[in-house]
Amino acid sequence: MIHVVAGALFDEQGRVLIAQRPPGKHMAGGWEFPGGKVEPEEQALAGLQRELREELGIEVLDATPLIAYEHGYSDRRVLLDLWLVSLYTGEARSVEGQPLKWVTLDELDTVGLLEADRPMIPALREARR
Ligand SMILES: Nc1nc2c([nH]c(=O)n2[C@H]2C[C@H](O)[C@@H](COP(=O)(O)OP(=O)(O)OP(=O)(O)O)O2)c(=O)[nH]1
Ligand SMILES: [Mg+2]
User: What keywords are annotated for this sequence in UniProt (predicted)?
Assistant: First the structure.
């Protein structure tokens, strides 16, 4: 089981940040929440902080777990662990060249989000109410 942590960042207009998976990677072209694999012996929050530092150039100061569940791809099983990032420093930018965009929660339905991420949408809606 691969433990994957990802972060939901919101802007002042209530839009959430998504990133496009680069060509050549698993599920290339799909849109996802920034994040990645937790390393052995690493705590989930520390993994989230490291991944968002590497991918977005931000420093996460506060985040809370929102929803976590297992998903079976044809070739792997992942534990998807989405966190709400409530406080960070820096401005999110594409450190690794991956396309980034801010979208409304309604737009998440049609943007080409990874199929495995669909249960995250109602959880995000709930959290924003
Ligand atoms: N980051 C992220 N990964 C997701 C999401 N949904 C989802 O199914 N995944 C899957 C795709 C990949 O199989 C796995 C993340 O692995 P990854 O390869 O991107 O991990 P990573 O950023 O650490 O990159 P690397 O080790 O390949 O360099 O989780 C999501 O919303 N965000
Ligand atoms: Mg990643």
Answer: DNA damage, DNA repair, DNA replication, Hydrolase, Magnesium, Metal-binding, Mutator protein
Question: Measured in angstroms, how far is the CA atom of residue 96 from the centroid of ligand 2?
Answer: 10
What is d(CA 38, CA 104) in angstroms, rounded to the nearest whole number? Answer: 27
pTM of the model: 0.96
Ligand 2 centre to CA of 33 (Å) is 8
Angle at 98 between CA 27 and CA 108, to 5 degrees: 65
Ligand 1 contacts CB of residue 17 (under 6 A): no
Radius of gyration of the chain (CA): 13
pLDDT single digits (tens) 35-65: 999 999 999 999 999 999 999 999 999 999 9
Domains of the chain and any CATH numbers: 2-128 (3.90.79.10)
Max CA pair span of the chain: 38
Backbone conformation region of residue 37, classed left if phi is above 0, alpha if psi is from -120 to 50, else beta: beta
